[in-house]
Amino acid sequence: MPDGTVSARTDKPLWRKIWDFPLVAMIVGSLLWYLGIGIAGAIVILAKPSIPGFSPEMKIYLLAILFLIPLYVFVIAKLGDPKRNDLRDANWLRKLLLGLVGGTVIFSIAVAIAGVLGIYRIVGIGSLNGLLSALIVPTVGAAVTEELLFRGILFRWLEQFGGSWVALLLTSAFFGAAHLNNPNASWIAAVGIAFEAGVMLGAAYMLTRSLWLPMGLHAAWNFTQGEIYDIPVSGTKVDGMVDAQLSGPPLLSGNGFGLEASVIAIAVATVFGLWLLWRAIQKGELIQPMWVRQRLAAPVPA
Question: In terms of residue numbers, what domain contains 176?
Fold first, then answer.
């Protein structure tokens, strides 16, 4: 059975049971995550570290990664019961590479369909001027920081408490809603992000019980759409290797948010996410709610 197995230790004091309770661990882990982000932002704003060619946003993401990874490994991963480090994986490189390839292919399929329909057109040659920024902010930065929060903290302990279906539903909804403050965002865009990315990344985490596959998918998805195809990344314009345009009905073009708000990308990525979910279920990675696991683990009366 996956790591949702009920702990055999029943002799813990009350305070320890409360501290190890999944929702308590989730809240503490989330607060620590926000603390790491806040410290990175405060250093950049107050100390103004000088890194040639780095914008303040790039510096914040870089520092956030440097703070959050050790914070996760040495503190957050040790919360709750059972304790688990989702970054410790002997096959991390293979899963990361699979994610990078998968994210690139899936988004390229969406772009190809948009091109056939006349929604996406390449109109010129782009530039590599924003390559470093694209690698740090929407690629590595977003993939690491967001996956640590949404899958490494929220999904993990929501699943420990309410089971896999509750975790997948809530984290997908949270992930979509978190993009509502982005440029050109709308409820359609948020729902699209929830389905295409929330399901895909949550299912990738379920399938591998590791953060490396979802981080690879997330990073490649963002880099491919922005830096390669010159499509806004969740509403944020990025200078790509080509100069391209999206035009057509809002439901197909994304209405300024990018293909992530298009039914094209939503359909393609959601189908892939459902396939990953099916694989996870076939593998036996579907975790039941805590109360169901406790009932099943209870001794049968003589």
Answer: 90-297
